[in-house]
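Appendix B. Raw example, untouched.
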Amino acid sequence: MTLQQNKFIEERIQKAIGFFENGYNCSQSVLMAYADLYGIDQETATKIASSFGGGMGRLREVCGAVTGMFMVLGFHYPATDVTDKKAKTTNYQAVQRTAMKFKQEMGSYICADLLKIKRQPEDATPSERNARYYALRPCSRCVAMAAEIVGTEIYSSKIEP
């Protein structure tokens, strides 16, 4: 990867962290960091990813940062023609590849595992965002990792974003 691509990915990572630290959920933060590459405005990206924070609506299933990464991959490797098996396979390969990279780096792609809590739905009310919240959770790191992995995937593919 070129120095310019590395710099670009680092800028996207910082954007994702900034969105998260300003109160957007983990999924929104990753998608919003890359949305402009695919002609998606911030409001639309925010809406698309709004239900996926907290491991999908605080169900503590797949990490929201990972689902945000998958959404970016859907724009990068679209599978819009139901008869195009190759496109769907390419998309699924990218999803599996990036999920495994995330799991290798973070230990899991399941929200409950990352938070070291029981895998069960929690109260639907979002946690208060404060210094304690950020200090006790790996979420900022998950957002950064997902943004880095998807950026690397985008630039290592032969498809221009």
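End of appendix B.
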